[in-house]
Amino acid sequence: YRHVPIILYLMIKRQDSASSVTPPAAPCLPSAASKEAEHNGKDKYQRHGSILESTQRWMARNGKFIIICTSALVLSVFLIPPLKVILQPSKTKTIATTTTPQRISAITAVKQQTSSLEIPPCPTSPWKPNENLQGKCPGDLKPYKDATTISQCASTCCNNDDCISWQYRQDVGCIQGKDIRLGMEKDGPAAWCSDHPPHRWQGQFLKPHGEKQHLDAKDVRTSACDEQTWNRNEEIGQCFGLGDVKGHAGGSAEECMAACCGDEKCGAWQWNKELGCFYGKGMHSCQGSGDPIKFDPFVGRRKQLESRRYSDKRGKPWQMTMA
Q: Taking each helix axis from N to C terminus, what angle separates 253-261 and 217-224, rounded to the nearest 10 degrees?
């Protein structure tokens, strides 16, 4: 019991100290105005809902406007180009007039030339239809000096059982020979003729050749593979022996050269904008600077042989395209 007074004293003192401590400030209660704003905001949020719902309601209110704008945009895409052509006839006509002569290709010229000529038929061995030997036949056809016109060249070949193919061009004269492969044909003899008229090419040897025969092979290749020192116009006449077209490098002469230089076995390349890129170990029968470069097409025919399939490397029939 002696501790009771002490305990009572401590309890009274603790109560007094607790009553003397300033009670913590009560949290600020929202005023009536804030409650109303919060309530309005909550109602506003509940009224508008999510972004998707808001977008849907906006599209529903402005549906006509959206349809009109979309229709106008679509119509402008399809109608503006024709309207430009209709509203500017004189300008279009001028452009067509100035560019048409430049766009006539050699193949079109060949068609015009052959259509105006009457090539004698060959009753005993008919000429293969729908084709013209308009391209270069590198060394496989030999001159026939007794024929001085296209008609004579065709007739003499028809009457000669040993003659299968013939060509004629004013500067070359009449040339005749045995059967040849044309274009992409793979069956038949080794002798081959291009199905394209002569084109102007860009190309170069990567190894000693001609006037560079005495130079070091490494130096020649290094110079030919550098765009600062190469000579893209070294062989502007068509060369042969480069194989099939290289589709992955046909974009430009630079691409063709780089592809050839990237192949250690490549020794020459040629590029033409219409025909693409060709490269291989070497090329031959180039229409080089030794003779005048002629880019005029030939006129020629070949007899159709029953032993030939005239097929490409896949075994499918190949037919020359006449423009």
A: 150
How many C-beta neighbours within 10 Å does residue 234 have? 20
pLDDT tens digits, one per residue of 68-90: 777 777 766 666 666 555 555 43
Report the pLDDT value the prediction gives residue 49, as an integer from 0 to 100: 57
Largest CA distance in the chain: 157
DSSP classification of residue 276: E
Q: Phi/psi zone of residue 276: left (φ > 0), alpha (ψ -120 to 50 degrees), beta?
A: left
Is 159 in contact with 191 (CB distance < 8 Å)? no
Instruction: Count CA atoms closer than 13 A to 281's CA, side-chain side.
Output: 1
CB 192 within 8 A of CB 179: no
- Cross-strand bridge partners of residue 176: 142, 166
pLDDT-derived band at 232, boundaries 50, 70, 90: very high
